[in-house]
Amino acid sequence: xxxxxxxxxxxxxxxxxxxxxxxxxxxxxxxxxxxxxxxxxxxxxxxxxxxxxxxxxxxxxxxxxxxxxxxxxxxxxxxxxxxxxxxxxxxxxxxxxxxxxxxxxxxxxxxxxxxxxxxxxxxxxxxxxxxxxxxxxxxxxxxxx
Length: 145
Description:
With about 140 residues, the chain is an alpha/beta fold. It contains six helices and six strands; from the N terminus they run αβαββααβαββα. It is elongated and about 70 Å long.
């Protein structure tokens, strides 16, 4: 399995210079907890990730005005990136070594193609484990009572 195969291809994004309130509204509209922050510089380049946690800890707790504070003021950076074809084990290893729950996935030409989250990985493990459990259950000997 590769990062590109498991990642979410539906990507909600933000601009570094837009307001935190606008980004928070987009999170609510798309029902997501994070936006990939893209900067236009001869194409789109991921420069950070803004999460609902960033908004709480770096905006609300610090009493910043969400209309005045920009996404770049509170986003998590650096952004950690893996390629579409990166093996899942390598991607999880990168999450562990960098202490992040989210990786931006890029495709040819470093185009942002999706986002891989720890939740995506855990959901995949649960699916695989359930399938293995079903096989084991079917292979149990049937002893008449």
